[in-house]
Amino acid sequence: MQILTSPQELAALCRQWHTAGDDIALVPTMGYYHAGHMDLMRHARGLARRMVVSLFVNPAQFGPDEDLAAYPRDAERDATIARELGADALFMPEPGSMYAADHATWVEVPELARGLCGQSRPIHFRGVCTVVLKLFMLSQADVAVFGQKDWQQQAIIRRMVRDLNLPVRIESRPTVREEDGLALSSRNVYLSPEERAQAPHIQQGLLLARSLVEGGENRVPVIRDAVLAHWVRHLPLGRLDYLSIVHPQTLAALDTTDGPALMACAVRMGKARLIDNILLRP
Ligand code: AMP
Known about the structure:
By secondary structure, the protein is of the alpha/beta class. 39% of the residues lie in helices and 20% in strands. Adenosine monophosphate is lined by residues 29-30, 36-37, 39-40, 146-147, 149-150, 173, 175-176, 183-186.
């Protein structure tokens, strides 16, 4: 596995691979690997002759009051994992090589980025789209793999790819969870033992919503209230950021769950902001 820090080197290496007839799968990450990242890499490994993993804590997707400086990092361990999972290249750029001091070009999908996480993180998805487009351009990836835990992110990236006719296929993978149901996240390390003990109730609430829909309930306010009531009882350390039921592709808010419906949430617990989602009607 080659470890690259320069964007130009990554572009040159990937050009060389394409010239030799090799296709390329890309897994963009911010590092501090857990089994969710590892699942994406295992999946990507089977998709193309070459696998590029990027590890970049992208400053452009963090707001001024967010956890950029505190974001957990362990590049050495991450490199070992990426190597063991068959990455051909690990791209770990310095922020200065991705963003010039006078960087001024942004890619946005405002329609899909306003709601859900975008409400409390107004510049987040602009930062995500911009860095992901850079990674697509540099790697010339044929396929890129994302996690469904960040549902809004993969929906926005799919739209960007479609709207800009980018020659890359997007695949997404189901959320990998702890045994008790908590979605794996690099940010779970922020949780105190008390918060960690309550955190599985985030998914319990979402599962309750799905069972209501399966039982015939279709009214969004009723379903939402039932989840909130579950959280009041079982998740007292959580502070709600949002809990919404939206169309899985357009992310438009729904009144009923008669068609495809995704319930998505963000809950703050101590220093952590945890997100999760569930398809209520696939
Ligand atoms: P991150 O390093 O948190 O930016 O995540 C990198 C990629 O891993 C994104 O596509 C995420 O959606 C994905 N990912 C993060 N957590 C999980 C998880 N628990 N299960 C599956 N994929 C995940």
